[in-house]
Automatic annotation (TrEMBL):
This is FUSC family protein. It is a multi-pass membrane protein. It holds the Pfam family FUSC_2. The keyword Transport does not apply. It comes from Streptomyces gamaensis. Residues 84-190 form the Integral membrane protein YccS N-terminal domain. It is found in: Cell membrane. Coiled coil: none annotated. Residues 382-504 form the Integral membrane bound transporter domain.
Length: 697
């Protein structure tokens, strides 16, 4: 993709306003937190203190709208602590511009590395930089700095208290995640009716698993409806695929295929009914026609063999998911967490995990590490330019830059455009109101609360809308402290544009492209797929030694690696660079082949034998051949060499000659081997292969 194409796409992405479900009650509660803090401090203290405290309440409220399964009070308290510390340190260094610049650079470097811990941690760290830049411009002494830092922390404490005292739809996000997973299974069942080899997006199941991880305190109060359906939904997916697949299930045409279509439609209706019940906290209401289909026909079974076994398994699992969800909405009441809970580590126990993540990303080749260095340099340059230019408000340019910078190119450029456009609109509208109405302190405070309420309400619709609300909020907030509207409008617009240009120029001059890493991501996905296949084949080879936990962990690893590949591929698609040994055609072919490999393994997993079954010599030999060929194949993907699957193919041929190709395990393994061959063709090197050098479209 050329630079012009990349810029056009990022501009469109930045200015896009999405229609999304609004959460007015949550927005109202967060806005009330800001109003409560600003009103009390303005009444009991001074306008300057009110402005300082408002930043804490604003940032704490904003972070609670981000995607995280941590309890919302914990997020608000974390923001309060971070903002208080950064504000006090900034005040101590503010007297000397050189010392403050050094502190700002080091703090920004550390904040940039916080993205290694996750997007919410990165956002919180970014907020601390913004508040450090803004609040130190308000005049005070060192004791006053303690007061300012304390008031900012009080703002976060107020938001945390409101979340605890005024709960709005408790467990709502967890309910939505589980309901979305079941709805995704229902959609998958419907698509399988028309496309028996349709692929499934595992992200809803991944989100549901993350949402199911609880702290011990949460585990004691979680509604029973959120306890069991997720695990059943995980087991449903391979059964649905196995039932629909014509190679291991019912024939492609005929009465058996019609019966399969009816079963899939009924399963989708049941899953949708359970999803609605969980989302709304109500009893399950099943459609009568779907219940009738999920019975053995009066004339006797229509399906035979593997398809009949899958159908019976599907009926049993659907009964389990209905039973698990159709419970009264009550709490455990102090009996302690159930064994199936995924316990989330406490904040202190996350410290070693965070330190390991930081060490892992503290390298020159890491996108997060380069983002941290890039951010530190840009903020320092922005601060120096802000002081050199005769515009005042030295903090606005570096603050605008750091608020739009992200570890990847597309987000940084899209947010830079959205920030500039939104700020111009927000500052212009707020400045016009200030010029025409000349509001006093209390009216300015009320307008600031209205602006922040709109921000909370519309934060998920687009960053340009959020930037407009933030720009208006800052204008009204500084109006409380007596800042003139005219200097607020013109200077902030100019400095916002400067900060956005600095952020975008930094990525052009010091990038961290995903495109050169795509082959490594593909190799990781191949390795994870292979480990998953080996775990499943081990059950066929030695049923008595079956270890479901090993299969489960391999599947989770495979999902995580596949998700990382998809994210990297999507980011690379928007980058203005040529590919490095992987054309767009080869990328699509490899993606399809590895997705098919995962699907074939999933079909095998749906038919793993019981512990009392006879060991399969063919499965053992094929697994040994695959395990021997996998490491070299992974290296070959990284090094752009041809892949050699002759060993697994020979083992499959010997297995088929010995046992025939009528069994499910042989047919599933053949699908897996075909996917490996397709991967070899997609990544075949040389001028005659599909991996010729070409510009990414």
């Amino acid at each position: 993709m050329t630079w012009s194409s990349a810029l056009r796409k990022t501009v469109r992405a930045g200015l896009t306003v999405e229609r999304t479900r609004l959460e007015p009650l949550l927005a109202l509660r967060a806005a009330c937190g800001v109003a409560l803090v600003v009103g009390l401090i303005l009444w009991l203290g001074s306008p300057t203190l009110a402005v300082s405290s408002a930043f804490g309440a604003f940032a704490a409220g904003l972070v609670t709208f981000q995607r995280s399964w941590r309890p919302r009070p914990v997020l608000a308290l974390g923001v309060a602590v971070g903002l208080g510390v950064s504000t006090f340190l900034g005040y101590l260094a503010a007297a000397d511009h050189v010392v403050f610049g050094a502190l700002l650079t080091v703090w920004t470097l550390l904040a940039g590395m916080a993205w290694a811990l996750g997007p919410v941690s990165g956002l919180v760290a970014t907020q601390t930089i913004a508040v450090m830049l803004v609040t130190v411009t308000l005049p005070t002494t060192v004791p006053g700095a303690l007061v300012h830092a304390g008031l900012i922390a009080v703002g976060g404490l107020a938001q945390a208290a409101l979340i605890v005292l005024v709960p709005i739809r408790p467990w709502g996000r967890q309910r939505d995640a589980l309901a979305d997973a079941l709805a995704a299974e229902a959609d998958y069942a419907r698509r399988l009716r028309h496309d028996p080899v349709a692929l499934f997006d595992p992200h809803p199941l991944m989100d549901a698993r993350e949402a199911a991880a609880l702290t011990p305190r949460q585990a004691r109060s979680r509604p029973r409806q959120l306890g069991g359906p997720r695990g059943v939904a995980e087991r449903l997916r391979p059964v649905l695929a196995s039932l629909a697949d014509p190679d291991v299930g019912a024939p492609a045409e005929g009465p058996e295929r019609e019966r399969v279509r009816d079963l899939l439609a009924a399963a989708a209706a049941v899953l949708d009914a359970v999803a609605r019940a969980i989302r709304r906290g109500r009893p399950v209401r099943l459609p009568a026609d779907a219940v009738a289909v999920l019975q053995v026909p009066e004339g006797g079974p229509v399906l035979h063999g593997a398809a009949r076994r899958s159908a019976l398994r599907l009926m049993a699992l659907l009964g389990d998911v209905v039973e698990a969800a159709d419970e009264p909405v009550r709490t455990e009441g102090g009996h302690g967490p159930e064994p199936r809970f995924l316990l989330r580590p406490s904040v202190p126990r996350l410290i070693p995990v965070g330190l390991r993540a930081l060490r892992r990303e503290a390298r020159w080749s890491s996108a997060v590490g380069r983002h941290a260095v890039r951010s530190a340099v840009v903020v320092l340059i922005g601060y120096a330019l802000g002081r050199a230019l005769p515009l005042g408000h030295t903090y606005w340019a570096p603050m605008s830059a750091i608020m739009v910078m992200r570890p990847n190119f597309a987000q940084t450029y899209a947010r830079g455009v959205a920030r500039a456009a939104g700020t111009v609109v927000g500052v212009a509208v707020a400045g016009a109101l200030m010029a025409l109405a000349h509001p006093g302190e209390w009216v300015s405070a009320a307008l600031a609360v209205v602006s922040v309420g709109l921000l909370y309400l519309l934060t998920n619709t687009g960053y340009s809308v959020a930037s407009a609300c933030i720009g208006a909020y800052v204008v009204f907030l500084l109006g409380i402290a007596g800042a003139g509207w005219s200097q607020t409008v013109y200077e902030r617009v100019a400095l916002t544009l400067l900060g956005g240009l600095l952020a975008m120029a930094s990525y052009a001059l010091f990038p961290a492209w995903e495109t050169p890493q795509l082959r490594d991501r593909l190799a990781d996905w191949l390795d994870a797929n292979g480990r998953y296949a080996l775990a499943v084949l081990a059950v066929f080879a030695r049923p008595a030694d079956r270890r479901p936990r090993r299969v489960r962990e391999a599947l989770l690893d495979q999902r995580a690696v596949r998700s990382a590949w998809e994210d990297a591929s999507d980011r690379a698609l928007h980058e203005p660079v040529r590919h490095r040994g992987l054309s767009r055609t080869a990328e699509r072919g490899a993606d399809a082949a590895l997705a098919t490999m995962g699907r074939a393994t999933m079909l095998l997993e749906a038919h793993v034998p019981d512990a009392a079954a006879q060991p399969s010599k063919g499965a053992a030999e094929f697994a040994a051949a695959l395990e021997a060929a996998l490491p070299d194949a992974v290296r070959a993907v990284r090094e752009r060499r041809a892949l050699d699957w002759s060993g697994p193919r020979a083992a499959l041929d010997a297995w088929r000659e010995r046992e025939g190709d009528d069994s499910v395990d042989v047919r599933g393994t053949e699908l897996l081997t075909d996917a490996l061959d397709e991967l070899a063709v997609a990544l075949s090197p040389g001028p005659g292969g599909r991996n010729r050098a070409a510009r990414r479209p």
